[in-house]
Amino acid sequence: MLKNYITIAFRTLWKNKAFTAINVFGLAIGISASLVIFLLVNYHLSFDKFQKDNDRIYRVVSNFSFSGEIYHNSGVMDPLANSARIELTGLDAVIPFRTWNGDAKVSIPGVAKEPLVLKHEKNIVFADSNYFNLLNYNWLAGSWRSSLNNPYSAVLTASNAKRFFPNLTPTQAIGKQVYIDDSVGLTVTGIVQDIAANTDFTFKTFVSYATLEKTSLKPQNWDSWGSTTGSQQLFLKLSKGASVKQVEDKIAGLVKKNKKVDAGDNSKTWHTLQPLQDIHFNGDYGTYDLPVASKATLYGLLAVAVFLLLLGCINFINLTTAQASQRSKEIGIRKTMGGSKRQLVFQFLSETFLLTLLATILSVAFTPLILKVFSGFIPEGLHIDLQSQPLIILFLVILIVTVTLLAGFYPSLVLSKFKPVTVLKNQVNANTGKTRNAWLRKSLTVSQFVIAQVFIMATMLVSKQIYYSLNKDMGFKKEAIVYLQTNYNDTVKANKRILLQKLRAIPEIAMVSLSTNPPSSNSTWSGTAKYKDGKKEVETDVQQKYGDTNYIKLYQLKLVAGRNLVHSDTVREFLINETYARILGFQQPQKAVGRYIEWSDKQIPIAGVVADFNQKSLHEPIKPLMIGSWDNTERTVNIALQPQNSAGTTWKTGIAKIEKAFKEVYPNDDFDYKFFNEDIAKYYESEQNISSLLTWATGLAIFISCLGLLGLVIYTTTQRTKEIGVRKVLGASVSQIVTLISKDFLGLIMLAFVVAVPLSWIAMHKWLENFAYRTEISWWIFITAGAVMITTAFVTLGFQTIKAAIANPVKSLRTE
Asked: Which residue, among 513, 516, 477, has the nearest Cα to 613 in the 3D structure?
């Protein structure tokens, strides 16, 4: 029986090739999008789920409140870990570790005639044996209990061991030497297998914690309870039954016991436990090397997948119910011969199943191509492999069953309800234009074009916000500026000055400045500063930047009060921004000049006030800021280039000369420069990716909707062939016939526009709330989207309606 159903289904689909093709391609596009989005969502949601007892593992994070402003930090005070291990209960493990900031130079002697030197090593961490209680590593050599117990010892992942010692097995690598930044010699004491599952813990070189504690690498504030850094991480594994709230309260008591609080201090510090599963998605605290994923974006992508899949299902329902009259005699004969309603429903569902199966096979073939198209922002580990990813097969099976029921159940009920007497009397077509089925088709068509127009409007709004973000005046100059970093470990202060002298002699350079980082940067340096004015005391967290006297000139920061900084090797005065001046209580910037700020136990005068500028992307509001001059911290060389000449070679020539000068001063360092405006553009990579995805989704939504519209027009013109012939014989023109056929469809699209506008406005308004500074939702976005949709639909309609209108009426009336 089943074989018979499939055979009949295949013959029916083959007989109606045009409608079958429209349905298959419509469903295939929706299923392809669903499959790609499933892979992406599953990839992100699987992070660190492989960890044993992952529901009991938490990161201790810090939160601060200064003058009503809330700040977050993923790190803790250095001494908190030891105190927690000794004094806190309800914990199975206390796991501290400290990340290595920036890149490191790694040297491996004895590998060849010359030492192997790797200048940009990342993923280095200081840890003890407890770290391997947190993560489930497979040990290839050494032991987790002893490998990191002693100073100057290191554990490597298998991938790093192969890079460092390419001709040695893991066991042979034990005892070999590795040097970091030429100053720290380490002995390899263990090799672990790289973690194959998705994880945010991307560290590959583990240096013993004792090395950090007992050498010159020991941080300055190692014993301070008043200093928090994101480098110092602390994880806790709670005992079974232990309460998160109880542990947080115990940590608060521990901090209160050890941290000294000054009288009049209005700041507040508290620690919370961040679940392991939250690390991959929480932008307040961040991850270690991988970008933070957005659950809101993932849910948005799921919605896109559902909508595209829904469009394909709507096409199927529309076309199948529209074709009902053509299958009426078949149904009448089946019922007359004893066919039951249940058998008919099963027959039509089997047709839907076969069509969905074909669409799924096609979508699986499309998926690698789609992944390649979006390879720019799809994670490297994302791929499709049905053999090694059984979850994908399960997803596809569920998808096939769901689509079969969703798209096929209603049409099968409609078709199976035909009465044999009515069918065989050829009365099934009576009043087809006014039947409930016709209204259902119109409602579904409206739904299709609502979805398509919402996509169009959203795409235009996202593009408008990106353009606004990239072109908004952020309060500084960003064009024709490059910057580069000098060696952090260079102890010869004269080198920076020599480099600046060489750069100033290059004619293609307009100005040079030395600073910590540019005005806008992902790197943040902040600290607590106090201002006292009689009885009033204002303490807040203030961002800090340091630069020479050319810093505000090069970036064209506007000085609204006071004067520029005077060059100094140590911090003797500050410039502050308007936001900080207002926090201190000065509505007029001039009144802040000459006042003193308590910073690092010193009273530092305010030399001037600069106009506010965005220190980060437009997602974030402007924060209070101090700019000082401190030669010891300034290692970023900022270079303003001269305008391009007519041949466009000024910058290329200038950068070549900059590289030559840099190599003369730092011959062993890599020359790595960045254009400042390109760094600003990277702030909005996420939005640009969303824009690209929306563009594709919009194109697919329009394509699927127009496929469905084309199918309905083909059906309508076929049903009205004789009517069109009669009208032509009676003198109707081609334009009149085209208008007659098209007006109902265009009316549905206009209705869809009316519904789409408020829905789009709500969604766009909600998305724009992610930006502290945002564009407006302009009226022309809606008008343009409506015009695009109507134009596209009119072209789709015109293709078939004009063909029907110019057909010879003699052929259509020949059988009348």
From this structure: 477
Distance (Å, whole) CA 617 – CA 711: 47
Measured between alpha carbons, how far is 549 from 567 in angstroms, rounded to an integer? 6
Q: What is the pLDDT of residue 432?
A: 45
At 298, list the tokens.
């993932």
The stretch 588-606 carries a mean pLDDT of 91
Q: Exposed, middle or buried: residue 647 (CB in 10 Å: 0-12, 13-18, 19+)?
A: exposed
How large is the C-alpha radius of gyration of the chain?
34
Which residue in 271, 689, 329, 651 sits closest to 481, CA to CA? 651
> Could you tell me if 292 and 280 are in contact, meaning their C-beta atoms sit under 8 angstroms apart?
yes
Given a contact cutoff of 8 angstroms between Cβ atoms, the answer to whether 693 and 304 are in contact is yes
* Strand ranges for 17-115 from DSSP E: 57-66, 69-73, 76-77, 91-99, 104-108
What is the spatial distance between Cα 58 and Cα 279, in angstroms, rounded to a whole number? 9
- Amino acid 95 reads I
Residue 183 CB partners (closer than 8 Å, separation 6+): 216, 489
For residues 222 and 224, give the distance between their C-alpha atoms in angstroms, rounded to a whole number.
6
Nearest alpha-carbon partner for 221 in 49, 77, 51 = 77
Cα–Cα dist 704/29, whole Å: 8
Q: What is the pairing mode between strands 602-610 and 574-577?
A: parallel
Cα–Cα distance, 422 to 752 (Å, whole number): 35
Residue pair 449/752 in contact (Cβ under 8 Å)? The answer is: yes
Bridge pairing between strands 91-99 and 104-108: unpaired
pLDDT at 291: 79
628 neighbors 546 (Cβ within 8 angstroms): yes
Q: Where are the domains of the chain?
A: 1-47+293-430, 56-278, 450-467+684-816, 481-682
DSSP assignment, residue 228? Answer: E
The owner of tokens 């960003």 is 478
Q: How far is CA 519 from CA 8, 432, 740, in A?
A: 71, 68, 63
For residues 386 and 391, give the distance between their C-alpha atoms in angstroms, rounded to a whole number. 8
**pTM greater than 0.70 (yes/no):** yes
- Whether pLDDT at 5 is above 60: no
Q: What is the pLDDT of residues 56-115, one digit of tens each?
A: 999 999 998 876 678 788 999 889 999 999 999 999 999 999 998 777 888 888 755 677
Sequence-distant (6+) residues with CB within 8 A of 74 are: 59, 61, 62, 230, 233, 285, 286
153-157 and 205-208 strand pairing: antiparallel
Distances (CA, A) of 438 to 320, 324, 507, 640: 12, 11, 76, 67
Token match 């974006």: residue? Answer: 297
pLDDT, tens digit, for every residue of 106-147? 888 875 567 788 878 888 999 998 898 788 889 999 988 889
